[in-house]
Automatic annotation (TrEMBL), chain B:
<comment type="similarity">
    <text>Belongs to the binding-protein-dependent transport system permease family. CysTW subfamily.</text>
</comment>
<keyword id="KW-0472">Membrane</keyword>
<feature type="transmembrane region" description="Helical">
    <location>
        <begin position="207"/>
        <end position="228"/>
    </location>
</feature>
<keyword id="KW-0812">Transmembrane</keyword>
<protein>
    <recommendedName>
        <fullName>Phosphate transport system permease protein PstA</fullName>
    </recommendedName>
</protein>
<feature type="transmembrane region" description="Helical">
    <location>
        <begin position="32"/>
        <end position="55"/>
    </location>
</feature>
<feature type="transmembrane region" description="Helical">
    <location>
        <begin position="276"/>
        <end position="298"/>
    </location>
</feature>
<dbReference type="Pfam" id="PF11812">
    <property type="entry name" value="DUF3333"/>
</dbReference>
<dbReference type="InterPro" id="IPR024573">
    <property type="entry name" value="DUF3333"/>
</dbReference>
<dbReference type="InterPro" id="IPR005672">
    <property type="entry name" value="Phosphate_PstA"/>
</dbReference>
<dbReference type="GO" id="GO:0035435">
    <property type="term" value="P:phosphate ion transmembrane transport"/>
</dbReference>
<keyword id="KW-1133">Transmembrane helix</keyword>
<feature type="domain" description="ABC transmembrane type-1">
    <location>
        <begin position="203"/>
        <end position="410"/>
    </location>
</feature>
<dbReference type="InterPro" id="IPR035906">
    <property type="entry name" value="MetI-like_sf"/>
</dbReference>
<feature type="transmembrane region" description="Helical">
    <location>
        <begin position="394"/>
        <end position="413"/>
    </location>
</feature>
<dbReference type="GO" id="GO:0005886">
    <property type="term" value="C:plasma membrane"/>
</dbReference>
<feature type="transmembrane region" description="Helical">
    <location>
        <begin position="248"/>
        <end position="270"/>
    </location>
</feature>
Length: 272, 421
């Protein structure tokens, strides 16, 4: 299956893309329905550690829907129904024994529109560790907040005003705050749903740089409309169209030598 | 495409028709602004008129006329053991010693045959309190300021019968008439004598009733709103519940009174006229208001905040209590203010559960018989005695002050919880 494809094309990738053994997250034959309407058809995909996987495709193709099945955010939509198998470290995340709260701590998420809580910068970052009880000793929380903000590249800009409201930051800063908030709970996978679509080019460049730096620690899945962005930040790219996964492979291969006609049409701007 | 549309001349913005349209538009604008201003001015005028009338009439209700009554205990001492005056039985002992008769005789002696009609029926209690404050009075000849009768009170205010007005002139010449702040009005309960009535009983009744209403309606209303908005599946049953709640908010209040009568008094056998029952009945009445306002406030919390919290692994309860409720609280409080204000002014349902009883002692707790401010106003406005007219206005002022204080508190709380983003 797709696993075999990785091995074939591994050399073409600029970065060490292939993780040995079990993939971090794997989806097999996933179907998603909203009521009667089927949004995702039979998608199988693997996501590896220390890797950025980009989902591209035209609007309404189901890439965001699929992303949200990976940490069960679709549970909040009453009419949504997921079939098939999605595993995290080999465990079925839709299993009854899987605790959805822990799952979402392990599989963090950054949303399209920056959505900091209307609280202080410090509280924004500290909220996750606090509800999961991650700061045991006194002063631990300060460390977690500082480390998360440093990793998100925001520390230098906000270290003197941690008590200011998170909503008072600029859009790009807000989005980095949201990333800091997500990594504060030490997730293994970070899902990013078009994280730069509401940002200007400079803020976008900063986020992309950040994604590069974070790649070493997490498995990152990013949904993007921007094909240049997918090409810049990702090692592997999946192309979705009308709810099906058309092609999944090394980013270089997808952009230089797509195997499917529809992929080629999309990345050359024929539609989308 | 262009062929189908054909050639079209550029629009001439200077034609007469155009100019006319512009003038018409400006006229409509001016007309609308004038109408709006008139509407605002009219409501302001009504409000000012209402306040002026209330304050004008009610101010006299807070004052009372007092008469200086000369009373001589030196010549004819009261048969009483002075040691008793320091005990709790002092009131009984003084009453038993015939103080009431002594005061009446003193009035006749001082002001002539009709002297007794000049002082209030409960004037002797003023003498009693004076003796309790200073037992030496019992061996002295002294003047005690006692409340005037309602007839004299009315005459002193410029009305009443001509005979009484003559008395007022006489007393004024002797310097035996004064107007003082009626502290008793704020500390006593209902009475048959307008000079002896107080608002404290009804005020405390309202306070206790509102407390019960708030404690029942607020948590139940907010929890219902949270459940319906955040947890309940969207199906036919929840639609039905939503329609029912909306209808319930519009049910006339007297029907809630009948419900309270049947359920709380009939089925559960709770005490009649008690603030507990009044509070429960009013809680039923304002719960729909709180649920509706709460649901709207919860709906207005941006979904992105819920996503953000869920996305870092907050449970649904944590999402609700850490994020949704704090953000919705100002809106919920607004709904609660509206509901509580309505409950405070409600009379009809309380009449049905017996809160219109004549109660002369302020309630000690939620199980004691009590009345509330609007019912008290209703009862007093029904009285024929002239003294009750100004007492009614005074009670209205107290009710309005209560309302303003309650709203001010709620608005203060709302502003404190308001979050800006």
């Amino acid at each position: 299956m797709t696993q075999v494809d990785f091995a074939d094309t591994a050399e073409t990738s600029a970065a060490p893309a292939v993780a040995p053994g079990v993939p971090k997250m794997a989806a097999q034959g996933v179907n998603v329905f909203y009521g009667e309407k089927q949004a995702i058809r039979d998608v199988s995909i693997d996501v590896n550690m220390e890797n950025v996987t980009a989902f591209i495709g035209p609007s309404g193709c189901g890439k965001s829907t699929f992303l949200r099945t990976l940490n069960r955010m679709n549970d909040t939509v009453a009419s949504a129904r997921v079939e098939g198998l999605i595993t995290l470290d080999g465990e079925n995340i839709y299993d009854k024994t899987m605790d959805v709260v822990q799952l979402r701590a392990r599989v963090g998420m950054v949303f399209q529109k920056p959505n900091p809580f209307p609280k202080s910068i410090y509280e924004n970052v500290a909220y996750g560790p606090r509800i999961h009880g991650l700061a045991r000793a006194k002063g631990d929380m300060d460390q977690i907040v500082e480390r998360s903000l440093k990793r998100a590249g925001l520390w230098e800009e906000v270290k003197d005003r941690l008590q200011d409201s998170g909503t008072a930051l600029s859009g790009g800063q807000q989005q980095r705050l949201c990333i800091a908030r997500a990594i504060a709970v030490d997730p293994e996978v970070i899902l990013m749903d078009e994280p730069c679509s509401a940002l200007d080019p400079i803020a976008t460049a900063k986020i992309e740089e950040l994604i590069h730096e974070l790649r070493g620690r997490y498995a990152i899945v990013i949904v993007t409309h921007n094909m240049q962005q997918a090409a810049r930040v990702s090692q592997r790219t999946a192309f979705f169209h009308l709810g099906t996964l058309i092609e999944y492979g090394e980013t270089d291969q997808i952009f230089t030598a797509p195997r499917q006609e529809r992929t080629k049409d999309y990345i050359t701007g024929r539609y989308g | 495409m262009t062929d189908a549309v054909g050639f079209r001349a550029p629009t001439d913005w200077k034609t007469d028709a155009m100019q006319k349209r512009i003038r018409k538009r400006y006229r409509a604008e001016r007309r609308f602004r004038a109408l709006g201003l008139a509407a605002v001015a009219m409501s302001a005028a009504f409000l000012i008129f209402l306040l002026a009338v209330m304050v004008g009439n009610g101010a006299a209700g807070f004052m009372r006329t007092e008469v200086a009554l000369p009373i001589d205990f030196k010549a004819a001492p009261l048969d009483i053991d002075r040691a008793q005056l320091a005990t709790r039985g002092a009131d009984l002992a003084l009453a038993g010693a015939g103080l009431q008769d002594r005061v009446a005789t003193a009035a006749t002696a001082a002001f002539g045959e009709k002297g007794e009609e000049l002082i209030a029926e409960n004037a002797w209690t003023a003498v009693r309190d004076a003796i309790k404050a200073d037992p030496n009075l019992l061996s002295q000849r002294a003047h005690v300021w006692v409340p005037a009768s309602s007839d004299l009170d009315a005459a002193a205010d410029g009305g009443g019968e001509p005979a009484m007005q003559a008395e007022v002139r006489k007393l004024r010449e002797r310097g035996a008439l004064q107007s003082g702040f009626n502290a008793g009005f704020l500390s006593r309960a209902d009475s048959t004598d307008p000079t002896a009535v107080g608002i404290w009983g009804a005020f405390k009744g309202s306070l206790l009733t509102m407390l019960v209403t708030l404690l029942i309606a607020f948590p139940i209303g907010v929890l219902s709103a949270v459940y319906l908005e955040e947890y309940a599946p969207k199906n036919r049953w929840t639609d039905l519940i939503e329609v029912s709640i909306n209808n319930l908010a519009a049910v006339p209040s007297i029907i809630f009174g009948l419900l309270g009568l049947a359920v709380f008094l009939g089925t559960f056998g709770l005490p009649r006229s008690a603030p507990l029952v009044g509070g429960l009945t009013l809680a039923l009445m304002i719960m729909p208001v709180i649920v509706i306002a709460g649901r709207n406030a919860i709906k207005a919390v941006p979904p992105s905040i819920r996503d953000a919290a869920l996305g870092i692994g907050a449970s649904r309860v944590q999402v609700v209590f850490h994020h949704v409720l704090p953000l919705a609280l100002p809106g919920i409080l607004t709904g609660t203010i509206i509901g509580m204000a309505r409950a405070l002014g409600e009379t009809a349902p309380l009449l049905l559960i017996g809160m219109r009883a004549f109660i002369v002692t302020p309630p000690g707790g939620v199980f004691d018989p009590a009345t509330v401010l609007p019912v008290q106003i209703f009862l007093w406005s029904d009285e024929v005695s002239r003294g009750f007219i100004e007492k009614t206005s005074a009670a209205i002022i107290v009710l309005l002050v209560f309302l303003l204080a309650m709203n001010a508190l709620a608005i203060y709380l709302r502003n404190r919880f308001e979050t800006r983003w």
